[in-house]
Amino acid sequence: MSDCISPSDLKLAQRLMSFTEAGMPLVDDPWAWLAGRMELPVEETLALLQRLQDSGAIRRIAAVPNHYRLGYTFNGMTVWDVDDEHIDRLGQEVGNFHFVSHCYRRPRREGWRYNLFAMVHGLSAEEIERERDLVRRHLGEHCRADTMLVSSKILKKTGLRIHSKPKE
Amino acid sequence: MDLLTQRMLDRFQHGVPVCARPYQAMAEELGCSEADILERLARLQETGALSRIGPVMEHSKAGSSSLVALAVPLADIEQVAAYINSLPEVNHNYEREHDYNLWFVLTGPSRSHLDAVLLDIHQHTGLEPLDLPMVKPHRIDLGFPMFQDSEVPQ
């Protein structure tokens, strides 16, 4: 996996995002549709998708479910203050719990001590408490403090709305 | 929701085939017809159970992103939330139960672009944004099993 993508691919990636951020249409051949929008041959479009996946600029190409609509109405952003010397291993292990969808290391800041973020999902409040407890037991003495931030309101969720219009 | 729909979602939330006629390829994997797949995807889209089909980008590679929080006085929360929502760089914004009660993701073409937005937010709200860009991903959002027994394995 290379660490960055070429400037020309970055430009193409930004165009590709603008065409796909609202989702691709349900047509027989969506990649041909995308190639049409990109004004590229289909083969080049597929090769671009492959390069962007290889470089990590595309995480996955997928059918993205709306978890709320599917009954997963409970989620919590759990945050943990984990020993820096163990966080690489422990972060990986926490990310492997099947109920965790995202697990990131983030910086500490003044007034913010938590350096590991794990989003947990469940079908009930009790279920996410049990999940949190499993993570807590797994981290054990390497975690000094933790809390969970439950969302009381979704104020905006637009999927992928990212870049200002690609520059020509 | 029928069993085929459940199997389809659990299987293809991780990845759809990148080839000509991907829905045909999905159908072959699940032992059904392309029409079965397209019908179910259309129904899921209508009910809002499917957000979208397409590439999920890693913004730190194709641009820049950060998780940002604000500690907003409760009396101002609606006004500040409306302002934050109006920013094109914001794509998720949640009110959460904490002193830091507004959490949103900022994305933009570059880190310097985000710095300028953070400065605007500070000047507009008088609040100091907590800026928490990713240091390292341990698990990126690849979906999770939705329809299996949700009990946690020992």
Top keywords for this entry?
heterodimer; A: 168 residues; alpha+beta; Alpha-Beta Plaits; 2 domains; 4-stranded antiparallel β-sheet; 5 helices; 36% helix; disordered C terminus; B: 154 residues; 23% strand; elongated; AsnC family transcriptional regulator (chain A); NirdL-like_HTH (chain A); AsnC_trans_reg2 (chain A); EC 4.1.1.111 (chain B)
Can you offer a commentary on this structure?
The complex is a heterodimer of chains A (168) and B (154). Chain A is an alpha+beta fold and 168 residues long. Chain A folds into two domains: 7-54; 74-150, 2-Layer Sandwich (Alpha-Beta Plaits). In chain A, 36% of the residues lie in helices and 27% in strands. Chain A has five helices and five strands; from the N terminus they run H-H-H-E-E-H-E-E-H-E. Chain A has helices spanning 7-20, 30-38, 42-54, 87-95, 125-139; strands at 58-65, 74-82, 100-105, 116-122, 143-157. Chain A has a four-stranded antiparallel β-sheet with strand order 3-4-2-5, with helices on one face. The longest helix of chain A has 15 residues, at 125-139. The radius of gyration of chain B is 20 Å and the shape is elongated. Chain B has a four-stranded antiparallel β-sheet with strand order 3-4-2-5. Residues 149-154 of chain B have low confidence and may be disordered. Chain B is of the alpha+beta class and 154 residues long. Chain B is built from five helices and six strands; from the N terminus they run H-H-H-E-E-H-E-E-H-E-E. Chain B is 38% helix and 23% strand. Chain B has two domains: 3-47; 64-132, Alpha-Beta Plaits. The chains are: A alpha+beta (168), B alpha+beta (154). Chains A and B meet through helix 1, helix 2, helix 3, strand 1 and helix 4 of A and helix 1, helix 2, helix 3, strand 1 and helix 4 of B. Strand 1 (58-65) of chain A pairs antiparallel with strand 1 of chain B, so a sheet runs across the interface.
